[in-house]
Amino acid sequence: MATFHIRENDDKHHPVSTLVIFTAMDSEALPIIEFFKLSPDDGSLFPLGVPWIRYHGTYKDLNINLIYPGRDPDLGVNSVGTVPASLVTYASIQALKPDLLINAGTAGGFKVKGACIFDVFLVSDLAFHDRRIPIPGPDKYGVGRRQSFSTPNLVKELKLKVCNLSTGDSLDMTPQDETCILANDATIVDMEGAAVAYVSSLMRVPAIFIKAVSNFVDGEISIPEDFAQNLQATVVALREVVAQVVEFINGKCLSEL
Fold this sequence. Notes:
- This protein is of the alpha/beta class.
- The protein has helices at about 25-35, 80-95, 140-145, 150-160, 175-185, 195-200, 225-250, and strands at about 20, 40, 55-60, 60-70, 100-110, 120-130, 145, 160-165, 190, 205-215.
- It is built from seven helices and ten strands.
């Protein structure tokens, strides 16, 4: 299993200074933007013409950058999924050189695994459930299992729930997806986490993942209906935990998290 390795020239004992918070959708981003009173970027950070959006500002001793992929220029909907997440994460790391990356977002939860609507989890392990490559060797690459950056003090102080996350590019779940998700021992599922983990691991930037449950994937209500009904309250719950996490991080070194 791949884990995060901090860049050799980084000092684990230097206080965290620059944060990048990645969200997949504007609905997830806006409550965090409002809480930290972040300002829009002038558009020069990313390549000309891409819809990617950055808000930035300071909170105590931290430089905070909130990034999300924006809306598809042709279809006008949020650019969700693993491809935009990978691209924007890579570009943000290249441009901003963060000390720590936070992927904050909504997720579907399994009732059978004990998840409840509005629960907020800190993710420990991440994997894909829709990259099926049934060949010995490449099969492990397809699953792409990784661990988030370990933050035992953060978990203890904030009394956060911890679980595994499985990522795929579809909102619904096929029987084959479900088999793979169960093999990943996942309590929650999303559409970007494992992709963000891949890029941050590749770029050797520690990353943590905060996910709020907006819908059940094994409930009686359809997933789209459940998601739409609970989204507004879920992003408020997400914002509250992100604020607590940022407050805890302020003034601390990576080794203290």
